Amino acid sequence: MELRHLKYFLAVAEERQFTRAAARLFIEQPPLSQQIRALENELGFALFSRLPRGVEPTPAGESFADDVRQALSLLDLAVRKAARIARGELGAVAVGMTSSAAFHPLPLTLVREFRERYHDVAIDLVELNAAEIIERMSRGAIQVAILRKPIDTPDGLAFEPLFDEEMVVVLPDGHRLAQPKRGRAGIRLKDLAGEDFVLVRRPGAPGIYADFLAACRASGFEPRVVQEVPRMAAGINLVAAGLGITVVPASMQRYGQHSVVFRRLAHSTRVSAPLHLAYRAAEPNSAARQLTQLILARAHGKPGDAGQPNPHPAAW
After folding, report:
1. Which of 231, 249, 269 lies at the terminal end of a domain, its last residue?
2. Which residues belong to any copy of the HTH lysR-type domain (predicted)?
């Protein structure tokens, strides 16, 4: 039994005449009669009573017609649902973000824009450190991520720069370097020599951690790290408690801790904390490809929509 046999049967059941059913199906009447007879032989019972002017479904034929309508309706629904998934209009995407990336307005603005456009795509936002995000992406548990500067870039993952953000120094309120006049000129890195530093653990923010340490060494000193924390927000809290100083991306000034002061670094010793988009180069999830496409278009200043999903994301 083939799908076309069911469509032929339903047309005859609804038209109650082979000639009209054949015209509706754009086939000749004799082949249609033969197909219905073959279907009855396969089922082992009559579907129609033949009348002088047309046909009448048998009780079994009436029941079969009702079920066939439902089956064809479900099949049509399945096709349309699968097509929407293939276009990236339906499904689910796991989006990873580091805690500092989530403080920048760009990532969440873009996720919100995507949700407004594709409201049938479920977004699961997961906040992890960079090492955890990359590990989960490598095994497919996260499809798209926004993080700072990764060092580990495994095969199969692509990284695109989105936005370059400066690092700022976080000082406890009343610190000698927290005076407003210093804030206007910026703090030189060498002014931080001898301070106690609270920094994110190296696996949590490997790229910007390494860049900051290298910048300090270039300024002539080795920073004294007295404590490492899993998240930058935890570092700000420890600064507020008087346990040291730290450096964070400028957007983390939105954190709202009132017992600390944020100061810019002097231009000559400025350290950056770039945002990157990470995605799987051979992503099978069409919704994830749509989100990736939208983020890249917005980050690169392209006002157009996400368009059709590109089957080759690595070429974007």
Report:
1. 269
2. 1-58
Instruction: List Cβ neighbours of 105 (8 Å cut-off, separation of 6 or more).
Output: 251
The arithmetic mean of pLDDT across residues 276-294, rounded, is 93
Judgement on whether residues 115 and 38 belong to the same structural domain of the protein: no
* Pair (217, 233) in one structural domain: yes
Domain count, the chain: 3
Residues 6+ apart with CB under 8 A from 268: 188
* Rounded Cα distance, 69 and 78, in Å: 14
Cα dihedral 94, 96, 99, 100 sign = negative
Q: Which residue has the tokens 């002088």?
A: 52
Write down the pTM of the prediction.
0.74
Per-residue pLDDT of 250-277, as tens digits, reads 999 988 788 999 999 998 888 888 899 9
> Do 106 and 160 belong to one domain?
yes
Is there a contact between 286 and 86 (Cβ–Cβ < 8 Å)? yes
Q: 277 near 145, Cβ under 8 Å?
A: yes
Helix count and strand count (H, E) for the chain: 11, 12
Q: Residue 96: give the domain boundaries.
A: 91-164+274-315
Closest CA to 175 of 77, 245, 223: 245
Is it the case that residue 135 has pLDDT exceeding 60? yes
Rounded-to-integer distance, Cα 117 and Cα 291, Å: 10
Token digits of residue 47? 């579907």
Beta bridge partners of 229: 200
Rounded Cα distance, 108 and 114, in Å: 10
Between the alpha carbon of residue 168 and those of residues 8, 35, 187, 218, the distances in Å are 72, 78, 9, 18
